[in-house]
Write a structure and sequence with these properties.
Helix 1 packs antiparallel against helix 8, helix 2 runs parallel beside helix 8 and helix 10 packs across helix 13. By secondary structure, this protein is of the alpha/beta class. The protein starts with a strand and ends with a helix. Helix 7 links the parallel strand 6 and strand 7. The structure holds pyridoxal-5'-phosphate. Pyridoxal-5'-phosphate binds next to helix 3.
């Protein structure tokens, strides 16, 4: 990756070498199953419990309120299906937003299609923000769960989760937040956020892939979605992924120890991208909120550009960027997020997301700003030629 300029930290982040070092012993000498009885198992068990405590300190919760999962997607599924199915005798109505990650949207659709739940998909404004008043208006006596993300993965917009939590207080409605994209950059204190459930994933915070977690407030009804040996208090069975759990805690602790300083550095790089692109690329508009956005996220909609072709051209120049989410790339469907924000049809096919990270330098940003304008110009000329044929 030495010649590559990686500007897709929203898709995934490199594992920090300090995280890898912390994980390594748990693949080899300390390999025991933490659920076993003998002393080597106690070593693994203690490592898991120490990791749980470190994460709980960052979330401001009790260690017993953390359930490790196999991904951020699994944590979202466990939150939504787990609560909905555990509370279905109390109501069948869920509220979410039109701009959620597919892990949330498709879990809700699954409950609609197969279990008869009703789901309200709240609209967003032009910046991708959910209105807390709209959440309140959507409540019915049958509403049991609201799921609103902390930060959007495609356009970086921050949602007013704490304000939504205040509107829900005392209404008997639980609040889940998908904090996967926000994990390294936002305050994750569950009391300040006021949430009952929160999903995170290690690979978005400079940790390993394939490990996530769900914060579940004590007393929250939750039906397990994976049954088996009863690990994680019966809430998620399966032998614990000890190295990844250790790595997750190390990654989150490193990110949160320097969060504010690093956020300032990232925001300066982000703003350099935003002002550079808007100044040098004609007919580019910023997508997402102008100020209420993740410090690492710059996203645009380019008129008259085939976004896929532009990404291929950037790749040939050694720049990793994306159109929106990594999950939907390869599909020619326009982004559900941009569509919900009312982005005009001529710009919908030209999304560009550039997300900086721990390794990003000013020189890399300047190189991007040099390369991008002629590539956009060429993509537009080519598009014009193809359309004329
Ligand atoms: C990446 C992401 C997910 C999915 O996490 P995985 O660990 O990749 O399954 C869910 N929600 C958001 C907002 C994300 O950015």
């Amino acid at each position: 990756m030495s010649n590559v300029i990686y500007l897709d930290h929203a898709a995934t982040t490199p594992c920090d070498p300090r995280v890898v070092a912390a994980m390594l012993p748990y693949f080899t000498e300390r390999f025991a199953n933490p659920s076993s009885l003998y002393r080597p198992a106690q070593v693994a068990r203690q490592a898991v419990e120490a990791a749980r405590e470190r994460i709980a300190a960052i979330l401001g919760c009790s260690p017993a309120e953390i359930v490790f999962t196999g991904s951020g997607s699994e944590a979202d599924n466990l939150a939504i299906k787990g609560v909905a199915l555990a509370r279905r005798h109390e109501g069948n109505h869920l509220i979410t937003s039109a701009v959620e990650h597919h892990a949330v949207l498709h879990a809700c659709e699954h409950l609609q299609r197969h279990f008869g739940f009703e789901v309200t998909y709240l609209p967003v404004d032009q910046y991708g923000r959910v209105d807390p008043d709209a959440v309140e208006r959507a409540l019915t006596p049958r509403t049991i769960l609201v799921s609103i993300m902390l930060a959007n993965n495609e356009v970086g917009t921050l949602q007013p989760v704490a304000e939504i939590a205040r509107r829900l207080r005392g209404r008997g409605v639980l609040l889940h937040t998908d904090a996967v994209q926000a994990g390294a950059m936002c305050d994750l204190n569950v009391e300040r956020l006021g949430v009952d459930l929160m999903a995170l994933a290690a690979h978005k915070v400079y940790g390993p892939k394939g490990i996530g977690l769900l914060y579940v407030r004590r007393g929250t009804p939750l039906l397990a979605q994976i049954d088996g040996g009863g690990q994680e208090g019966g809430r998620r069975s399966g032998t614990l992924n000890v190295p990844s759990i250790v790595g997750f805690a190390e990654a989150l602790a490193l990110a949160h120890a320097q969060r504010e300083e690093e956020n300032r550095r990232l925001a300066a790089l982000r703003d350099r991208i935003i002002s550079g692109v808007l100044a040098r690329v004609p007919d580019a508009t910023l997508t997402g909120h102008p100020s209420q956005r993740l410090p690492n996220s710059a996203s645009f909609a380019l008129a008259g550009v085939d976004g896929q072709a532009l990404l291929v051209a950037l790749d040939l120049e050694g720049i990793c960027a994306s159109g929106g989410s990594a999950c939907s790339s390869g599909s020619p469907e326009p982004s559900h997020v941009l569509a919900a924000m009312g982005v005009s049809a001529d710009r919908l096919m030209g999304p560009l997301r550039l997300t900086v990270g721990r390794g990003t330098t000013e020189a890399e940003v300047d190189r991007l700003l040099e390369i991008l304008p002629p590539l956009v110009e060429r993509a537009r000329a080519l598009g014009g030629l193809l359309a004329a044929e």
